[in-house]
């Protein structure tokens, strides 16, 4: 099985290289067949083959590359590439027509399971902990305490602020939809209290402002431009340091970029969260607090689904799910510490 | 002697090959297209010659080659060359919003530079901006629906059938009456497109795809803009081809259009010669005055025009019996209602050349003897009937890849640039799922 996987990867890699060579020869600035990073594309191709259980996917990709290769005007280059193409095609046609497996084990997921934590991180990899949490469950405090205990950086709204700097955008014009209501300049980063809701509709802008935003965000909706920049920033940071990151679909972003990480989801029963919100935010009305939590949960479910295609809070998406009401803030931190064996 | 129905078999055979061979014998089909086209053409010409005589067969083939195919392919060639010399560079990222804007611009442009012109001009920017995405074939499908077809209904420049109507006495700006219908179709299709594109855009994001937007601000650079002059030159040549035949200087004593005699009754008219000369000159000047780097950046190859040129020569030749039968039967079909005109003209335009189809039904309507309507050289045609014929011929060219020349051009260009375009049948599937319901709405709202 491992050999077969290796062969598939090797073949997908050679197809990627062929596509790159064709594209280089053509000097075109239009679309390529594989239009992402090498590793990403190989991963995607192999994944598709497993998911759809069809060998002909590679053949389809190859056919597209040959369409482009045939348009190379220089005879020698075309000949060289077509020889490579024929060799790869021969190997592809010899592939088994099905990759069905009797075992339920998914190699990709197994590499990420909690029992394999030690082997998950190579020598060059940094320890990255992604924490998703519901509002009012104490998740931010748990994340902050965890980062403090591990002596690593804690990132939440700082990522959003950095992205705004990159985009040269004003904070007032963009909402931090990846985070929770937060008060800039509060003494404690964990103090997520703010009069402006993160998920409130963006303020209305004039036509001139809309044009300016269209230009600033490359024609993308503001929130998408922020998300893409957050993705880039997280991947850059993951190459440089260990950290704990709160929300922002970081788990999905890092998975897509094959960056080792630990994903944790923290929540608590609604009653506990309501009480905590009433205490921390000073909301006197219980119903009001409940409405706020329901609203924030809904907005987060929508946000997470939109950018990741996954269901927020579903156990299958995380390494560890914690009910903070059962462990408390310190208990939850200890539980996580025990899991990552860094005590 | 009327044309027997079985003579349509070569046409059906060729369509079958275009639809099926790329799926089952892709590489063989790529290498042997000219052979297949020649084979089916001969299979039509020989029995036709046997039935009607060698002279009639030669005349029929030359008539369609000289008077229909030549101007058709030269126009396509000219627009292909000129548009290929304009390139857009920049970091605008293909998103549902940007795509809607591009499709809207393309659709509105179609009536003023032709569906082919707009398609060739817009297809590369659309491909380029969406290069970061994996799921993008649907964008080109809707591009074909809107830019390559529906958008061309407002002026005679937009689509050849309307030019034919213009040369038969339909006023140049009459087609602007179709604006509300076009707007309705555009709005419905763009709404459907938005939801499909948004879903696929989210799927791309979920898989970790992202555009390169690392630098703040969008920079767009268009190179080769001077080619717009040549584009205008080509559009003017098309307009002239509709105007000149009516000028006395181009007519003989009997009122026939003067030209170069080829064979039998086949004449290459002087207006057509002028049109061809102007278009070829524009293409030549465009090549001479444009930096080859632009073509390289555009991945400009002759593949698309070559494939369309080969396939359509076969389509033009083998569809002659079908057109002859249609011409003979047009009046006997008993089609008098606008909805009947819309659907019959449309369904036939999906597979046959929409220009003669339009002409057959315009002639049929003109001969019915309506008391009021628009005065044309073919007789009085009620506005509702003319609207239905025009919309049917222009809109339903989008139903298949062969319904309109730019459809195939867009498909081939996309295929050459890393996009998995749907097969012939899957494209028809898109039409059935998206276009036909919209056309049914059109029928209820505008053609009852």
Summarize the structure.
The complex is a heterodimer of chains A (343) and B (448). Chain A is of the alpha/beta class.
Describe the structure.
The complex is a heterodimer of chains A (343) and B (448). Chain A has 343 residues and is of the alpha/beta class. Chain A has helices spanning 2-26, 38-52, 56-69, 75-93, 107-112, 117-120, 139-150, 157-167, 207-216, 222-240, 250-256, 270-281, 286-308, 324-340; strands spanning 128-133, 153-155, 243-246, 262-267, 320-323. Chain A has a 5-stranded parallel β-sheet. In chain A, α1 runs antiparallel to α4. Residues 183-198 of chain A have low confidence and may be disordered. The relative contact order of chain B is 0.15. In chain B, β3 and β4 (266-269) form a beta hairpin. Chain B has 448 residues and is mainly α. Chain B has a two-stranded antiparallel sheet with strand order 1-2. In chain B, strands 3-4 form a two-stranded antiparallel ribbon. Chain B is globular, with a radius of gyration of 22 Å. Chain B has one domain (5-206, 223-446). Classes of the chains: A alpha/beta (343), B mainly alpha (448). Chains A and B meet through α3, α9, α10, α11 and α13 of A and α4 and α7 of B.
